[in-house]
Design brief:
Length: 130
Amino acid sequence: MRALVVLSILSMLSAPALAGSPSVKTMPPVVVKTVPVSGATAVDSKLKEIKVTFSKDMQTKKMWSFVQASKETFPKTGAPKYKDSRTIVLPVTLQPKKTYVIWINQGKHNSFRDASGNPAVPYLLVFETR
């Protein structure tokens, strides 16, 4: 599984990103923080928004890819909105005692991109409500 993830990330990198010495500017953005935290098992079902923060400034003009793993595990959502150039907020309605699974970029759905156009590395947000 780890090799598949590494190959997936390497396939996302452009030739300029891999040429010479890598830098923050040439490497793709990554998720550095989520609210709730991925893996949380006691999230309040009254939570009204999911926040995702990236490592770099992002394209904020209606550029996002919150991707369903399945219809059953995806929350009811409103329109996403960037709080600032690195953090996007997704309004949600959650149910108690349920597992939620949300991909941040996945496969051909890779609209989360930094200011230079590099797509963010896919991130899997999984949490359970109490």
